[in-house]
């Protein structure tokens, strides 16, 4: 039994009682894992939803021309509504849109040799901002 006691490395009673209180429980989970917060802040939750609605800004010659007049074009989720798009733009860029127009576009028919197929359909949103307001969608391009 002398070998087992050396391997086991038992702690004295004074150290074991001092480290953990009787009423305190350790969080369940893996060793070294961090417990998830109980509730995410509403600001971050709304912003995360906004990035699911606004997929990406469209950068084309026509879209760039519209930016001079306060019209910004985005590719949005197919299920997004105009009020959701307006709220997403406000959450991401901090500017409330004046008007939102949407267009649902069919996917193009494409060919690979003799085989034909179709690209996915998508939805485009034209967001109009009030005069004097602008957003920076070219950052990081």
Give your account of this protein's structure.
By secondary structure, the chain is α+β, with helices and mostly antiparallel strands. The protein has a domain at 57-111 and 120-131: RRM (RNA recognition motif) domain (Alpha-Beta Plaits, 2-Layer Sandwich). It contains 5 helices and 6 strands. The strands form 2 sheets. Strands 1-2-6-3 form a 4-stranded antiparallel β-sheet. Helix 3 (42-53) crosses helix 5 (82-93). Mean pLDDT is 80; it is low at 35-40. This is Large ribosomal subunit protein uL23. It holds the Pfam family Ribosomal_L23.
CATH architect. name of the domain at 57-111 and 120-131:
2-Layer Sandwich
| Biggest pleated sheet | 4 strands, antiparallel
Sequence of strands across the biggest β-sheet: 1-2-6-3
- What is the share of helical residues? 25-40%
Using the coordinates shown, work out and report the CATH topology of the domain at 57-111 and 120-131: Alpha-Beta Plaits
Runs in which pLDDT lies below 50 for 5 or more consecutive residues are 35-40
Shape from CA axes? flat
In whole angstroms, the N-to-C terminal distance is: 69 Å
Keywords: Ribonucleoprotein, Ribosomal protein, RNA-binding, rRNA-binding
Family: Belongs to the universal ribosomal protein uL23 family.
GO molecular function: rRNA binding; structural constituent of ribosome
InterPro entries: Nucleotide-bd_a/b_plait_sf, Ribosomal_uL23-like, Ribosomal_uL23/eL15/eS24_sf
């Amino acid at each position: 039994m002398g070998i087992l006691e050396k391997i086991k490395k038992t702690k004295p009673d004074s150290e074991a009682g001092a480290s953990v209180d009787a009423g305190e429980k350790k969080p369940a989970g893996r060793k070294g894992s961090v417990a998830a917060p109980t509730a995410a802040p509403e600001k971050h939750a709304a912003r995360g939803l906004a990035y699911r609605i606004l997929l990406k800004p469209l950068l084309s010659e026509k879209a760039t021309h519209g930016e001079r007049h306060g019209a910004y074009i985005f590719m949005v989720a197919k299920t997004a509504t105009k009020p959701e798009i307006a709220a997403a733009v406000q959450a991401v860029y901090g500017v409330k849109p004046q008007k939102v127009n949407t267009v649902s576009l069919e996917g193009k028919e494409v060919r690979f040799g003799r085989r034909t197929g179709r690209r996915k359909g998508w939805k485009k949103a034209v967001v109009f901002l009030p005069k004097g307001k602008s957003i920076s969608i070219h950052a990081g391009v």
